[in-house]
Amino acid sequence: MRVVLRGEVGEGRAVTKKAWKRVGGEAQLSMLGAASSIIDKNMMPTCPVCQGPLRFYYHEFKQTPRRSGTVWIWCGACGAWEHASRVELPKDRTYADPWATLNLDAFDRLERNQFLDQLERKWESGELPRQFTCA
Fold it and tell me: Which value, in Å, is the radius of gyration of the alpha carbons in the chain?
């Protein structure tokens, strides 16, 4: 299991909130299954680790002829997370990605800079959509 520490610097001191924990084993399979449920059924499952509500983010790479992207799924309660790439979005689904205009290099830099913390902040502030839009 890989652990990524979350922290903020405030008033000259570091404050640790919690650790992000990439899941493995059965929890990983459940987390990836949850990603499928979110994409295919627009249904929000619970975390396989703590039963808390899961959160997700989808970024589509503008490549033709297929619509494919990456999905991040995480639990804001316990810090469990997983990521899947080369995800094909059904034709009738859209997602209002706040980072949709970033080119591949800029998105790569974003992902490498405390991305889960950024996702969590955007989720909490309501900047990330809570579901896909169906056509």
Answer: 15
- Domain chopping of the chain, boundaries: 3-134
Q: Which helix (H) or strand (E) holds 37?
A: helix 25-41
Whole-Å CA distances, 129 to 6, 27, 39, 42, 64: 23, 24, 13, 12, 24
pLDDT digit string (tens) for 28-45?
Answer: 999 999 988 888 888 889
3-state secondary structure of 14: strand
Q: Are 57 and 119 in contact (CB under 8 A)?
A: yes
3-state secondary structure of 118: helix
Q: Which residue has the tokens 């830099």?
A: 109
Q: What is the DSSP string of 54-107?
A: EEEEEEEE--SSS-EEEEEEEETTT-EEEEEEEEEPPTTEE---TTTT--HHHH
In this prediction the pTM is 0.81
